[in-house]
Amino acid sequence: MLASISATTINPRQNNIPLIQSVKKNRNVTSLRIYARQAALVAEPPSPHKTQNRTARLAESLLNFVHLHFDAPTNNSSYAGHGREIVDRRHKMADPEAPIMSPKEDISAKWNEIHTSDRYENLLSPLQPWLRREIVKYGEFAQATYDAFDFDSFSEYCGSCRYNRQKLFEKLGLSKNGYEITKYIYAMSHVDVPRWLERSHLVDTSWSKDSNWMGYIAVSDNEETKRLGRRDIVVAWRGTVAPTEWFEDLQNKLEPIDESGGEVKVEHGFRHIYTSKSETTRYNKLSASQQVMNEVKRLVKLYREKGEAVSLTITGHSLGGALALLNAYEAAETISGLPISVISFGAPRVGNVAFRDKLHKMGVRTLRVVVKQDLVPKAPGIMLNESIKKFEEITGNLDWVYTHVGAEIKVDVRSSPYLKRKFDLLGFHSLETYLHLVDGLVSSESSFREHAKRDVALVNKACGMLVDELRIPENWYQLEHKGLVKNPYGRWVKPTRDSEDVPSLHHINETPCPPCLD
Amino acid sequence: MLASISATTINPRQNNIPLIQSVKKNRNVTSLRIYARQAALVAEPPSPHKTQNRTARLAESLLNFVHLHFDAPTNNSSYAGHGREIVDRRHKMADPEAPIMSPKEDISAKWNEIHTSDRYENLLSPLQPWLRREIVKYGEFAQATYDAFDFDSFSEYCGSCRYNRQKLFEKLGLSKNGYEITKYIYAMSHVDVPRWLERSHLVDTSWSKDSNWMGYIAVSDNEETKRLGRRDIVVAWRGTVAPTEWFEDLQNKLEPIDESGGEVKVEHGFRHIYTSKSETTRYNKLSASQQVMNEVKRLVKLYREKGEAVSLTITGHSLGGALALLNAYEAAETISGLPISVISFGAPRVGNVAFRDKLHKMGVRTLRVVVKQDLVPKAPGIMLNESIKKFEEITGNLDWVYTHVGAEIKVDVRSSPYLKRKFDLLGFHSLETYLHLVDGLVSSESSFREHAKRDVALVNKACGMLVDELRIPENWYQLEHKGLVKNPYGRWVKPTRDSEDVPSLHHINETPCPPCLD
């Protein structure tokens, strides 16, 4: 059905309701991809005098939406200047000794601007350098949940973190940020949303086939606390690298966030991952929600008793950004007087207008970074939300309309001279692409920041977005021999994981020791 | 056209010549794959009484050929016994301390059997253990040309060997074989057969964009010489890992092997790679042929002057097996009295009947290992050779018919309890699959050898043929981070190659020192 959509098929004089329903049913990304490409090429909004009735206007809105949001690949002729820019920048990139980060500055006096200003006025356009640096820091915390995740479906530890919490930041080169992980978070993989989470192929997997490592809670050390002006508790939620399978499975089903939520509704699947638990599992006798809230409450109490200012910053990419919002909502409802921010990357919509309004009313500040070409932030209801909002008279009720929360930082793949101009669904959604574009962002009107320092090679960790001139292989983030090693007898074997990196129930079921920060 | 072939289309009562011509034109492997699958499923040989004329018999022959050579995947129900066998063997495989090689035995009195017996009688069925061990040894020499090859098209050394000749065997764990490499071989990559060889994406590549590393010449050390009963010179030719692009480009054009060749004709593309040279290149002022023959002649002279018995064993996989035959032909014509063997794996046909007869007459012994399911040994002329040979009355002339040379050892993917029963073009052709199946071979009637010791994990180096129960990842032979390393400044960079591993003209243009064997 989708493949047959064309300027001819979408005739505003026809009744298009059945067509739109069929679009809604098809959530297959491959189809969407084909559709988006075709739509971008063929869709021309019909001229105004032809839009005679409500149905026709709805169709027009849909067409406009498609046209605006999906750009056809730039043709080669516009590449000339791009090529020269690359050459000009090459010598800079080739300098292997160039610093990879701007120097840190003391932001203790600035941080409150986020919590006192409404919707981050004066901070985003142009993007304040100190805020950009913070966004990249939190983004790297989210990226760590991918970099350390055991994706190997033949591993007995598939779905766990490859390192224990004491080693993770050191292994990933993030110790520089001055935080310490105090707890890992697990979520059930048996949620009724199929294929969202990693499952081991092995039936007799020895850690837990019921749970996935979903992130961690960390807290700033004394030096970083001084620089920030408060003890910062971070929650980083793991998402999904590829918007393939789970995207397809989004059920577009809004349900009340809790018994007392009233009109506040959120997507069923996200809420299910956040709240599921089972007595028969090893790692999810408590839900992810309970694990996180217990630890956050403990840390807040610990530092408040010391007389410190405390903040909570929740971050995540993709699905992780959705979980971050649910987490922020619960924290704001549960802990009074705690400044809470969410910094999300490529996150889908989570709830309805009431959810958005309640979050805002409770003082949760949300900064959503969105790559213009990424499809995931347009989900759920990729085709319908914007269109329907403009035609709310059809229902007169916004309860079932997914709505984004907070302030948006929009970045554009085409702003970077380092990125290919090709349609690449995975590349657009990749968190490293996001971090690269944030690093180069000054404002939507400016060109890519000349003094951006972040290593561009990182972009190609899990995609192939970098232009060939940079000579960085695609999808290069991989273990040597996929983790096999040659043992002294000459056999290639999967090494036993260091016992200290084996997931431990201790982290979950017992109260951890206070972090050794003093 | 191919997609439309079915039991209905191939009607023996129709004139099928145009159909077969269209099959010949299409050399696209993907199409072949689809075709083979479909053919295996739909092709039933027509009943004899329907085959009325020559054309009909040709069609029948083609159908039989297709039917015999491509097996439809086994359905799951026949897996039960297979699964149990796997489980039975699992504890053996799981023993990481199991030896990976049978003990060596002295074969000094046995080797001549190959050169005195015609077509290896009494050695192949059952396969003599000492010969199996030798076949695996030479196969590992051929495998080394893949394992050490720089496939990275963004590397400035793309198409070269990653290690210098002194280090190669040590790096790959092949020092145990007791050989020392005396010279590397290079061939031009600018041959008029497109896409056969690796080419760097980089225009300013610093070693040579004109040449590819194509293998090496090695010689047995004193200990191995004693065990073998003669000083063994080995030539190992690199082939192509994937029968994708070059397969498609096979020109099926026979041409005389040289001015004096008379009726002896070989495939144009193979001969072109073997003989091309250019004064404007750095590594191919001499052709691969000249490089090899100069070194072999030097070594033969060196050891004959010491009064030693000398032999030449030429090995290669795929394209490398074709080059091995051309090399053997030239060596047999050039050096009198030298015992020459070719041990090839998954090699295509190279020449016509006269080529085969001349090789045999000159005393070249050839052992071709062929996986029954592999398509490459059926090339060139994948569909036509067997059929046409049976209908030689059509032309009465075998000059243009490609013919295999020497004795064949046929192995069957279905003989191994470790391999999946799936159609996998790359897996069937992979040299590691070949070595695994040879290691398990007793005879075509026997089941997989119980005491086979070769590490089965090796099979999945560059394919995914191993059953899931073994828990070995697919395509696991890969560099950590595709060769990128984090430098002390935190940037991911391509490290400079050790200067001693940079390809050196010294190896090509100057006479190397004699190997330090004494």
Automatic annotation (TrEMBL), chains A, B:
Q: Span of the secretion signal?
A: none
User: Is Chloroplast tagged as a keyword?
Assistant: yes
* Stored InterPro entries: AB_hydrolase_fold, Fungal_lipase-type
- Sorted UniProt keywords: Chloroplast, Hydrolase, Lipid degradation, Lipid metabolism, Plastid, Transit peptide
Q: Which GO terms describe its biological process?
A: lipid catabolic process
**What residue stretches are annotated with the Fungal lipase-type domain?**
234-382
- From the Swiss-Prot or TrEMBL record, what is one GO molecular function term? phospholipase A1 activity
Question: Cellular component GO terms, alphabetically?
Answer: chloroplast
- Keyword Nucleus on entry: no
Question: Subcellular localization, per the record?
Answer: Plastid, Chloroplast
Question: What family is this?
Answer: Belongs to the AB hydrolase superfamily. Lipase family.
Entry protein name: Fungal lipase-type domain-containing protein
Lineage, broadest ranks: Eukaryota, Viridiplantae, Streptophyta, Embryophyta, Tracheophyta
